[in-house]
Amino acid sequence: MYKRQVLALGDLRPVEAQALVDSCGVPVESRGPLLAFAGGHPLALLLGAAVAVKDGGASRRWVPDQDVVATLLDQLVGELPSAAHRHALEICAHAYMTTEELLRAALPRDAGALFGWLRRLPFVESCRLGLFPHDVVRELLEADLRWRDPQGYAVMHDRIHAHLAAKVRTASDGDVPGAVAALLYLHRDSGASSDFHRGVRRGRHDGGEFQEEVLRQQDLGTLLRVATAEGAASARCAAFWAERRPEAFRLYRRAETGEVVAFSAWLRLAELDEQELAADPIVAAAWAHARATTPLRAGEHLAVSRLWALPPERGHSPVMDVIQWRMIGTCLRAERMAWSYIAARHPDQAWVECLRRYGMRDIDEQPRLDDDTYTLLVHDWRAVPAQAWLERMNHLLAAGPAGDPNAATTELAVLTEAEFAEAVRKALRQLSRPDALAASPLTRTWLITEQARQARKNPARQAGQAGQNPARQDPATALGNLLRQAIDDLRQDPRSVKLHRALTATYLRGTPTQELAAEQLRLPFTTYRRHLTAGIQRLCADLWHQELYGTNTPAR
Fold first, then answer.
1. What φ, ψ does residue 508 adopt, rounded to 5°?
2. Distance in angstroms (rounded) separating the CA atoms of residues 112 and 361
3. pTM of the predicted model, to two decimals?
4. Which parts of this chain are annotated as the region Disordered (predicted)?
5. Strand, helix or coil for residue 543
6. By CB atoms within 10 Å of each CB, which of 8, 141, 320, 514 scores lowest?
7. Cβ neighbours for 258, distance < 8 A, ≥ 6 positions apart
C-alpha cells in the first residue's frame, strides 16, 4: 500500500513558466504582462492564463481582474487577524524593503509587534535590508488596495515616501544609492519612462552587483584605460580632474569578478581658473551657461557630473542605474548648490525626455570631445530646491504619463543681492498695500516658500506666532508678516534700537511723510534719515542672509 506524500511546488523557472502559459493558449500579446505579474507562481499563472484566454486578447495590456486578485489573496494570504495587520502587510508590499523603522513611520501603533508578525509569514522573506514579500503577493496586495481604497493607498504612499526621502538625506555616504533606489521603487508602476525606473523594477536596491569605491592612487591607470575607450580627449579630461579633484571620483567594480567597469566624477565648483576652463570643454560650457543665466551667489557652487564607462556598460546597464542613484542622492543632499549639470555622451532620447519631465533640461550648446558631442542636462536648485523637486517627482509619478510637469510646482525667483535689496526697499514702501506686495518678486523667493512649508508642517505653532494660520496665507500676506517681523526683531539688539524706531515710524505707523516721522521721533531730519538708511540696509542684509543660508543660521 502506497503512502501519499504532499510536496511543496516551488516557483517555476522562466522557461517552465513560459511553457505553461503557451500550453494554456494565452494570446501572444498577453503573455509578457502575465509572466511579469505572476512570475513563476503556478497558481497565479493558471488563474491569470484562464482570464487571458477568456479575454481573447481584447485588452491591450493584460491585468488581473478583481476575481483573480481576490482568489489568489484567499489562497496565498488568507484571513488576517485585524485591520492593523492588513495595513502592515500592505506597507510591506508597497515598500521594497520593510524595517520596523519604516513600519513605525507609516503605521505608528504597535510597529514592533506587527513587524514580528510579518517576519513569521510564510510568503515574507528577510535579508540584510529588511523584509519583503513574494513578488506575486506584493503585486496582489498592491492591486487590491489601489482598487479597494485609492485614498488610503495614496495616504500610505505619501507617508512611506516622506520617510524614505528623509532617509536619503540622513543615510551614510555608502548607503545613498540604495536609499535613492528605495525611494524610486515606490513609483515602479507609475507608467513613466521605463528607462528611468528600469533598475528599481528589477529590485537591485542593495547594489550588490557592483561595489562603489572612492578613487585611490593605484586606480589611476584603470581610470585612464576606461576613459581612453571614449577617446584621447576624454582621457585627458579624466586625468586632469583626477589630479585636481581626486575626492570627486568614484569607481564601480563588479562584486563577483572585481573588474572595474566605470568611473564617475561629481565636480563641485565654486570658481574656475583659466587652466581648468581650457582643460575641459564640458565644464567650460556649464560654467559659461551658469554665468550667462543666473550666476552663482555668495557661498554657492555648481556641480558637473562626468562619467567614463567601458563600452558594454554604456547606455542601459545595471551599473548606470547605481551611478544615477548616486547622482540623485548627491543633488538631494547638497547644500548651497546652485546648478547641477549632467554630461551625457550620445544619450538615449527617452531618458532625456524623462529628465525633462522631472524639471531638468538640456542646454543649447553641445560641447565636443574628439568627434563626440555631449548633451548637458541642467537643473537650477535655487529655482526648484530639493524638497520641491521631490514633491514634483512624487506628483508626476503618481499622476502617470498624463501628469503636467509644468503644473507640478512653481519655480522660485533667483535674485542677485542687488535685486533682492531693491525688492525689499520697494516692498517696505508697499507694506500697507497687499495687492502691490503680491507682485513683488520676493513672494517667489525661497524665504517666503520655506515659511509656507514650515507653516504646513506645524500650523498650530506658526499660528501662535503670527496670529493667524500661515498655511492659509497668500504670499503677499506672508511677505508682509516677514517684513514686520524682521523690523520687530531689531529691538532684540541694543545697537539696533534706533534703527527699529526709524523703520517702525516710517513703515508700520502709516506716517504720511518722512519729515513727520522725524518730528514724531523728535530727531533732526538728517539724523532720522541716517537711522532709516542704516535700518533698511540692516534689514536687507538680514533677509538676504536668511535667503542664502536659511532662517536658522545666525547672521554674521
1. -105, -20
2. 45
3. 0.81
4. 453-475
5. helix
6. 8
7. none
